[in-house]
Predict the 3D structure of the following.
Amino acid sequence: MTIYLSENIKRLRREKELTQETLAEFLGVTFQSVSNWERGESYPDITMLPEIAGFFKVSVDELLGINRAEDEAEITKELEAYDNLSDEKLKQEIIDRLKEKFPNDFRVLLRYMTCLVHFKEKTVENVAKIIAIYENIKQNCSNDKIRISAKRHIAELYKELSLKEGSGITFEDCEKIIKEMPRMRDGQEMFGTFYPVDHPEHDLKIQNAIEESFLLRTTFYSHFYFYNDRCTDEWQIKSVQKEIEYLEFAYDDGNYGKMWRMMMNLYGHLGVKYYNLNDYENAIHNFKRAAGLAIEFDGMDRITTMHSTMFEGKEFDKHTLGSTFIAKSRVKELLTQKYPLSDDFKATEEFKEILSVLG
């Protein structure tokens, strides 16, 4: 049985905003005793446990963390389900339930913060909640991955609020957080090269780093050039075609791994650009290609093994893109609701045929 007494005393003390000296005074022990308890160098006398538990208004079992293993198994299972979902409502239901039951788990708090930032209206109450969670994580969480993710979310919030008149937040607030973030080269993927060549995960770590770089590059590329008036539609068409050509080269077996959704989006982008130039034939051609990829993706097994030269032997799990992600539904939504296409164009037989195969 694992005992979590040391960290629980430390956590409960901080939740009450007490110093070690103050807690020691309440319990009638020395400051050094409390310090040693929290470092795990010694433990309170067993007769003191009911008194300590009573002071914090928890049971002795909770103070010792006896139920921690069961709780950990439940949290791990629920968070895995949450991370595999793309449906916002289902994600919210899971995290609300976990937040109610495990209000002090930083993994849960981070995802609750995510939902508030991305799925909820930025009311005064919700903004206050987001900032409170961020401050809690910043001050009390020792997990760097969680701390950095929280910074990213608070930067996203500040960016949005800086555009809202009267919010009291300026872009300088956002920029301050950005400057505290690690550089791209300090991400964990970059350290795949540290693995010994004979390590069983050496190749996988390198392949994961390459795919992550593809995702980042294509995302930045699209946002800067595709949505930027500084480039003509003709130039953007050529640039997207070059990006597709490179990804086709990298994934020469036709299994696009983590880039499946990006490939569908790239063909959709091309369709929109050709539409803007009144080249409806090429617009339809690229929309058909996006739809074809969606059908192919949805028809794949959940787990497939990639056989491209670059990713030979790497397994791809479709749930990486979300267990509820249905590619046909997403492409259909883009074609009917997101892309700026005229009603006349949508009424053509060629366009309606694309929609029909998407179901």
Q: What stands out?
A: Residues 202-226 form the longest helix (25 residues). The chain has three domains: 5-64, 82-183, 199-358.
